Amino acid sequence: NIVYFFIYLCRLKKRFFIKSIDMLTIKQITENTEEVIRGLEKKHFKDAKATIEQVLAFNDKRRSTQNQLDKNLAEVNSLSKSIGQLMKEGKKEDAETAKARVAEIKETSKALQAEMDKAQEDMTNLLYTIPNVPYDSVPEGVSAEDNVVEKMGGMETELPKNALPHWELAQKYDLIDFDLGVKITGAGFPVYKGKGARLQRALINFFLDEARASGYEEIMPPTVVNTASGYGTGQLPDKEGQMYHCEVDDLYLIPTAEVPVTNIYRDVILDEKQLPIKNCAYTQCFRREAGSYGKDVRGLNRLHEFSKVELVRIDKPEHSKQSHQEMLDHVEGLLKKLELPYRILRLCGGDMSFTAALCFDFEVYSEAQQRWLEVSSVSNFDTYQANRLKCRYRSAEKKTELCHTLNGSALALPRIVAALLENNQTPEGIRIPKALVPYCGFEMID
User: Fold this and answer.
1) Which of 219, 212, 1, 198 shows the shortest CA–CA distance to 103?
2) Tens digits of per-residue pLDDT, 389-406?
3) What is the C-alpha to C-alpha distance for residues 154 and 341, in angstroms, rounded to an integer?
4) Percentages helix, strand, coil for the chain, rounded to the nearest 5?
5) Could you tell me which of 14, 60, 148, 205 has the fewest CB atoms within 10 Å of its CB?
6) What is the signed CA dihedral for 415, 255, 193, 294, rounded to 10 degrees?
7) Under DSSP, is residue 46 helix (H, G, I), strand (E, B) or coil?
8) SS3 (DSSP) at 425
């Protein structure tokens, strides 16, 4: 019984160790507490200091109970060695006393284990609600108005008098039927027709071919994921209300291919030689966009279902900055080939996503609507997603370390289509950019 109990305690300790790996952000918090708090305040995370203090309190409780369990384990080990010797020496009464002490420790350890599990669970649940800490290069700011314009480029456009917005162009040339989408499903689910459907397919193939030419391996992932995948990349619990949930099967429709593709590397230890991993994927994407209404969501500006090609990278920490720049260059190259006016924004702390440490947005200009339309976000998540995913790599020195994860849209189709239709309208019809003509099979929509 003593031997079995000894094994039992070892298993408890091992089980806890495995669980604790899941949230290595506790290391960041304990070693850089004030820096973490300042970063969370830059993201305007509510009650940052109080939340971090609560995390540290749970961690202290977890560690103190672990220490006591270790002491109990050492005492049981010592007693187990002495009992046999006491029996050999004929000291039966002392042996029985030692056995009674082992039984007492067993009950105490069960209670301690429950306390430690509770502290670990509370800490993990709280950590899941805390966003990533932004890099120092992220500007201060509250909203999109505080983002910094890094670069502007692309071709200037001159539209004919009385230029039309894309939803009127779509109706005029019978490209997209918004009312039919409402009939079949509801608002935000358009039906693409004829040359409108061919333009969609052309853009998808163009984006995928460009990604493959840049060294990305194409993936065709599922468009529904389980809860573990949602937590792995940080959509859950943060964006739970924005995701379509299939409750019977407890599955979620993906808001981006980032989720299934990045989760390929969940619970995986990669070899350093495999990095950087470069994947691309085309998927349909689904977002509830709860609370979105008004003129800014008209037509293709904001949909519940849309097509997107996504880039995902898994990399070493020392190389992820270069990977991020390469992804930015790739997206910029696509917009140049599509001959669209664009700008690149460095997002401020208050406008960044929950999971990003650094993010740049690409926007194209809609001449007909006289506004900028976001078409891509390219983000570096540092080790934040890898902490959740347990995505690691083994270095040449055989040391296991967390990877960095990155992703970016290359590109999301709806607003690209909107800008292409609006910025290329002429009295004769809508001109197709040269780079797309081989994919579309036509030069004009007329």
Assistant:
1) 1
2) 999 999 988 899 999 999
3) 4
4) 50, 20, 30
5) 14
6) -50
7) coil
8) strand
Strands (E) located in 134-206: 148-153, 176-177, 191-192
Helices (H), 44-91: 48-88
Q: Which helix (H) or strand (E) holds 432?
A: none
The secondary element (H helix, E strand) that includes residue 222 is none
Measured over the CA atoms of residue 119, residue 125, residue 130 and residue 135, the dihedral's sign is positive
Q: Which of the 8 DSSP states describes residue 305?
A: E
Residue found under tokens 């019977």: 248
DSSP 127-138: HHTSPPPPPTTS
Which pLDDT band, with edges at 50, 70 and 90, does 263 fall under? very high
Q: Write the CA distances from 384 to 83, 86, 176, 317, 347, integer angstroms.
A: 49, 54, 40, 12, 18
| Whether pLDDT at 2 is above 70 | no
Instruction: Indicate the pTM of the whole model.
Output: 0.88
At residue 155, the pLDDT reads 75
Is 290 within 8 Å of 393 (Cβ atoms)? Answer: no
Going by C-alpha positions, the residue among 414, 419, 411 that lies closest to residue 188 is 414
The sign of the dihedral angle between the CA atoms of 303, 307, 313, 314 is positive
Q: Which of 281-295, 296-310, 419-433 shows the lowest mean pLDDT across its residues?
A: 281-295
- Which token pair is 391? 């995505």
Q: Which amino acid is at 192?
A: Y
Q: Tokens 């669209």 correspond to what residue?
A: 340
Instruction: Write down how long the chain is.
Output: 446
Q: pLDDT tens for residues 53-87?
A: 999 999 999 999 999 999 998 888 888 888 888 88
